[in-house]
Amino acid sequence: MNTAVLEVRDLNLSIDSSNGPHQLLDGVSFSINAGETTGLVGESGCGKSMTALAILGVLPATGMTIRSAGIMLNGEDLTALNHAQRRRVLGQDISMVFQQPATALDPVFTLGQQIAATVHRHGISGRKACRQTMLESLELVGFSQPEKIAAAYPHELSGGMRQLSMIAMATVCKPAVLIADEPTTALDVSTQLMILQQLKRLQTEYKTAILLISHDLNIIRQCCHTVLVMYCGRLLESTDPESLFSHPRHPYSAGLLGCIPKLSATRPPPINAIAGQVPALTDLPPGCHFAPRCDRAIAQCRHTAPEPESDNGRTVACFRPMP
Amino acid sequence: MESVWQRLRSDGYGMLGFYIIAVFALAALLVWSGLLGQSWAVVSGGRWESISSTHWFGTNLLGQDILQRTLFSSATAFEVGLSVTILSTLLGTVLGALAGWFRSSWLDELILWVKGVLDSIPFYLFAAAIAFALQGNRWAMHLAMVITFWTTTARIIRGEVIRLKQREFVEAARAIGLPPRTIIFRHVLPNTSHIVLVQATIVFVAAIKTEVILSFLGLGIQNGVSWGLMLAESSQEVLAGHFGNFAAASIALFLLLVGFNLLADSLQDAMDKRRSVS
Amino acid sequence: MVVISCALLIWKIVYKPMNKLPYFVRRLLFGTALVLGVTFISFLLMVHFGPDKTYELIGKNPTEQQIAEVRHALGYDRSFLLRYGSYLRELVTLDFGLSDSSGEKVSSMLARSLPISLLLVVPGFVLGNGLGLILGMLAVWYRGRWLDRLVTGASVAGMSVSFLIIIIGLQVLLCTPHGLNLFPVRGWQVDGLASYLFYVTVPTLALVLVTLGYNTRYYRAIIADESEREHIHALKAYGATPYELMLKHVLKNSLVPILTRLMFSVPLVLISGSLLLESYFGIPGIGQVTFDAITSGDQPVLKAVIGLTGVLFALALTVNDFLYKVVDPRVARS
Q: Which domains does chain C have, with CATH numbers?
């Protein structure tokens, strides 16, 4: 039995607007274990990236408020830390790989400078030592000529190389938890595979727990030990990928899986797109947010939000789960 | 446009700016229709009379009523501001759109060259040169401003058109074979209207401020009076301790400019919000 | 019309092969084209359309021959292109002849007055931009809070005050018995640091006040834009401190627009700024020389000043492109 290295308890995130606050995340609770990969899936705009940023406490806009019953990293509550203490943890114990390495790396510093600055920030002093650690991290993600990459500016590298360098920057301090926000979405298929393999290697090397955010169900299926399904800021189902894919219990999960085209099918399969549209954040339906699009919804679903219920290592938030 | 107006309504500072401008515009309209400030040139008292019930702001060196001159000057400010703003905005929008649409073509380079040349000539000297060339024509100042002020508008519109040209609706319009003229004027330029509006308020401010300096240099308003001329007059008076002209002109000028700057800010904010939504 | 279509034709012929040249050669060519354009327009306006000075220089009831002699002496009988050519030669050799009003050599007038103007505007230029940058950074640092509002509000107010009002107001407040009466109303008798400060303080204050609103606003917008960029948020996730973000990452990314503004305001402040300051405070710099030339229609002086500042501006434009290459790796290595 693995121990939970990161535990998120009842995470709420709201943003102020002219007509009152809007709920971006609503009671998100989950934990991830050391050395395991946890997948977070959902349609774009459902709050996947916001979950990552809220865990780190790095919010992109003003007017956002985080409330939670605690974000425990190795038993330490991140929400109880002051700014300076939090900065010590960020990049060292918990780190993040962003979706767009082209915009998430500073264009006017070389990669070496940026990675070395991260090393320096977290307690390694001396130019030489920083540089050594920096080069090792580049080598570890698979660069055969780390000096060359270190001297390059982000725009001089290809998308895949940029993403590898960012992974090197995120893992240079050997964090316990790595959040990877759609790390392969901006890349072509062959590069995707390489990036995922490198993440896997780093995981076995450092026992890192990875929170892999993706909308690509195939990637989730290949890489994850646990899958979290998110819709409109709420977690609807969490389980291991095998049971999810063979046997989804939440109607939304079932709908999401129905959207994967199967190449092996002899006949073109019926298109199982989920009926209706994702509601706007400003106009979330009461009760279960998925109810208006759900063909199993009953009256209760439309006014009460179902609480997540655990059964046999599997959590589902639904009044009428699939059998 | 409606959404911008609604956003403006909800912005206190923007509305304050709008009301200030409206008051001055009303004064200007009344001057133009002959109801206000008509006796700006009449000698109605002694030199440098102080504030009284007949001369609310006192009189100047020649014994002219400073209030009358201040009011008349608001019409001058709007005459200069409106003519320069409208013409330079038109010129800048059209040339900027052409340069942006035909980016990196010889036309673009030519327009950029003309813009570069005009930006490289020190403005007050350019105004002086135009004044010489037109041999004291009263529109020389306006012309000088129009010729030099369009460049900023053109640069901004050029950038915006380059941005818009990559958008789907423009690509769609090109795909169905609409001629560039139709796309630029029917589909692209209307989408820049907010930027044009903000830029126009900024040009208005620049025009009024420039008039002051040019009038002080003797290159400005010729038959009439303006806040700039009043300030130029006052530059000698203040040393002798007569502040009527200086106070009246600088307060009126400051208020109108604050009005325009607040409005420009508010419009810019409304536009940024609109952009971040779309 | 003929001139325009000829220019278009030349442009097209020259333009096509130009695209194949290396970047810096093209920039240099563009710079040269700018200088030619500036000089051409100023020549067109001041010499070709400018006032005819024949009758100012000759006595009453002149004979045909006298008129022709004066016109020949002024060069009016030569063709347009020849006269433009000689203007270009004047620019290159810096020999602009004699001033119409004082009879002094224009080049020596400029050589005498330029250093004074530099001494006059440099402190104000440095302070105006330095303070503007600092205030802009502070406003972004305290974004949405009272300090930001104060700075933004004050810069709107500053942008709404005319240069002339600031000059007159400061003069009354600091230089006359109606105010503090600490500094001289006019003049420039500088022979040391004390006297320099005595004469330069009020003009410097005026220059700072008139530019600070615009500078603060500009720098605030640049800094705000740069601190919104995704890599700044990403760096927060790696534990970067706010100081590190602002002073290292935001500032270095803002360097290009900041340098651009600095480059372009040099000729502007030097000529337009000193024009008002010097004519108002009676300082014998290049602005005063220009002001006198404007009011008296002194063509040789105006020609020299316009031509030279045009060249200066075109140079700034070209140098600016090269500066990009130095400070911005994205341009440098692409």
A: 115-297 (1.10.3720.10)
